[in-house]
Amino acid sequence: MDAVFWIVLGVLLAVAEIFTTTLFLIMFAAGAFAAAGAAALGAPVALQALVFAVVSALSVALVRPVIKRHAMPALESGDQPFGVEAIEGSSAMVLEPVDAERGLVKIDGELWTARSYDATRSYAVGERVQVIKVRGATALVWQDEISTPGGLPEGKR
């Protein structure tokens, strides 16, 4: 029965990590799964708690810094960007009018919901824009610096 408690706790912590993305709670989930293993081997509750504490502490102290160092954004590490990082800075074609509330653009053959980076600006169908930032599945766009005088907003040049 103790093993079930630790497994449920580990799953709950892992699910909570999905929402926080801090690489902190997942270390405690690892500790809970280690304690579940100790419980399955018949260890007393005090030893299970000790295993949980030791594995969690070692994970936070030793594993988390290594993961965070290797999870550095590609632009900081000098590697070729991929995923959302590769989309930021790309040029896009407006397919449906884009403003602060709605819009649709085509980026490298893919359709993306879009919003204007500057809430006071709007872009008509057929205009070229540049992706400044991606939030979730929405591209925040600005006038394309190549096709429009003025270029990128201040701080993004």
Give an overview of the whole structure:
Residues 85-142 form the NfeD-like C-terminal domain. It is found in: Membrane. The chain crosses the membrane at residues 44-63. Pfam families: NfeD (PF01957). It is a single chain. The chain has 157 residues and is α+β, with helices and mostly antiparallel strands. It has helices at 2-20, 25-40, 45-70, 74-77, 84-87; strands at 91-96, 104-107, 110-116, 128-135, 138-143. The chain has a five-stranded mixed barrel. Helix 1 runs antiparallel to helix 2 (25-40) and helix 2 (25-40) runs antiparallel to helix 3. It is elongated. The relative contact order is 0.09.
Topology (elements, then pairings):
Elements: H1 2-20, H2 25-40, H3 45-70, H4 74-77, H5 84-87, E1 91-96, E2 104-107, E3 110-116, E4 128-135, E5 138-143
Parallel strand pairs: 3-5
Antiparallel strand pairs: 1-2, 1-4, 2-3, 4-5
Number of beta-strand segments: 5
Q: Specify the helix fraction band.
A: 40-55%
Which stretches of 5+ consecutive residues score pLDDT under 50? 148-157
Radius of gyration: 23 Å
Strand order within the widest sheet?
1-2-3-5-4
Structural class: alpha+beta
Order of helices and strands: HHHHHEEEEE
**Beta-strand residue fraction:** 15-25%
Distance between the termini: 59 Å
The quaternary organization reads as single chain
The helix count comes to 5
